[in-house]
Design goal:
Length: 468
């Protein structure tokens, strides 16, 4: 990395100490960690030092616009000058149709500038929204970000936090003053807090590791909406994804093993791993083409869909659709989570949000039922009647209103009671019901799905469907 050459040029335009390239927290050093060696070029800064540096550069040969707060100047507080430079950077990204990456560490609006500083944040937010769906926007929280410094990352597509970072609208001091509650910055808004509530998508050890996450993520994303993200194809992770799925519907497994079996080189970049872990979302490649993967996770809550899983899935589907990334949907779910808590939390509204996201998506979307798809969960997880491009079920999969045992207990409750709830009778009736009503073959005959295949054919069929 030719950091010296860049900083030497910067020194001619900034008073000494304006960018502090020797400081690990310097915005210039963080931007240089992100960009390809020798590619970083600063945007012309004001005559006086300000708490933001902005630049253009390249990541894996692709152009990006990037900027970073300088926490060494007024704790990175944003005033009118800082806001103006950030707005210029965001508009440049829009004009050139290139991604934006921001390293954020800011105390919020500059107190000395009052409402003018708040107005600066408003202009930044406006530009964030104007870029939504046009180019990828990625935020890295590399320190403490408070107040207005939290809304901008929440308006971008992806957020990465370093281990020592924290973000919150009101800090520990205000919490103590208003609520008389003692709480640390980490407890209030550290990465463990935000990776569990969906605000943070990735956690990295430090700024260097965060830059690596961003470089990896940008490799999966298109440079702008409507441009496919393509690479040279690579062989799949292994030949048989079915080996990872137990035959018994009562046994759990990790659906990420199935994803890696199908993906090029077995590579899968999971997004928001700790938020609603019963729904897995992330990026993979199939025959060199980026796909967004959304899958039920039997390892967590048996793959049931709840409020948080619905919201997580809907946000991911909508994001992929914005950038033209096709979707691969892997289904193994008993349906939606029942209970008073879920109903009070608005499971109807959130579930409908996931339905809406799939139904509104214009990208190719292929569904594979791995083991079971029951009730509203079947419909919601990109069913054929919801507009899926192609729907496939593995041999032995079950698709229906509910599982065979539950259905038989309702349909034959008198017969079962008369037989003293005989386990043998229940098993026989359940087997008959499954063969007649919820088998993959029955779904194929009814036109509910397009094909029934052995697991070994999954990658080839998905690649073919996406190519069409």
């Amino acid at each position: 990395m030719s950091l010296h050459a860049v900083t030497a040029g910067a020194a001619r335009r900034l008073p000494q100490g304006g960018l502090r390239p020797e400081d690990p927290r310097s915005p210039l050093r963080r931007l240089a960690l992100l960009c390809d060696p020798g590619s970083l070029r600063l945007l012309d800064p004001p005559a006086e030092p300000i708490a933001v540096a902005a630049a253009v550069g390249r990541v894996n040969g692709r152009p990006v616009v990037c900027y970073g707060h300088d926490a060494g100047l007024s704790a990175g507080a944003v005033g009118t000058a800082e806001a103006e430079l950030v707005v210029r950077a965001l508009r440049l990204a829009r004009d050139r149709s290139v991604p934006v990456v921001a390293f954020l560490e800011s105390a919020g609006a500059r107190l000395q500038e009052g409402a003018a500083a708040l107005g600066g944040f408003g202009r930044i937010f406006y530009e964030n929204v104007a870029l939504t769906g046009r180019v990828p926007q990625i935020s890295v929280i590399a320190g403490l970000s408070a107040g207005g410094g939290c809304y901008s990352p929440a308006l971008t597509d992806f957020t990465v936090m370093t281990r020592d970072a924290a973000m919150f609208l009101t800090g520990p001091g205000v919490v103590k003053e208003v609520l008389a509650e003692e709480i640390s910055a980490g407890e209030l808004g550290g990465p463990d807090v935000h990776r569990g509530n969906g605000v943070c998508h990735f956690v990295a050890e430090d700024a260097a590791a965060a830059a690596g996450v961003v470089r990896d993520l940008l490799g999966y994303l298109p440079p702008r909406a409507g441009v496919p993200a393509l690479r040279e194809p690579e062989p799949p992770g292994d030949a048989d994804p079915g080996q990872h799925v137990p035959r018994s519907p009562r046994r759990v497994y990790d659906v990420r093993s199935v994803i890696r079996s199908i993906a090029d080189a077995g590579a899968f970049l999971e997004v928001a791993e700790r938020w609603a872990p019963n729904m897995v979302t992330g990026f993979a490649r199939i025959e060199g083409r980026t796909v967004g993967v959304i899958a039920n996770q039997p390892k967590r809550l048996g793959g049931v869909i709840d409020v948080h899983a619905s919201e997580k899935g809907a946000r991911f589907v909508t994001g992929c659709d914005r950038f033209g990334i096709p979707l691969l949907v892997l289904v193994d779910t008993p349906g939606f989570m029942p209970g008073r808590h879920q109903e009070c939390a608005g499971i109807i509204r959130h579930g409908a949000g996931l339905v809406r996201a799939f139904a509104a998506a214009s990208v190719p979307r292929v569904t594979v039922v791995l083991r079971k798809a029951y009730g509203g969960g079947y419909i919601t997880m990109n069913s054929k009647d919801l507009g899926a491009s192609h729907t496939i079920a593995w041999t032995g999969a079950e698709i229906g209103v509910m599982g065979a045992v539950a259905a038989v207990k309702l349909l034959h409750r008198r017969e079962l009671a008369a037989a003293g709830h005989s386990p043998a009778l229940l098993e026989r009736l359940a087997d008959e019901y499954a063969a007649r009503h919820i088998s993959a073959g029955r779904a194929l005959r009814d036109g509910t799905i397009d094909a029934v295949i052995p697991p070994t054919e999954t990658r080839a069929r998905v690649a073919e469907a996406l190519s069409l």
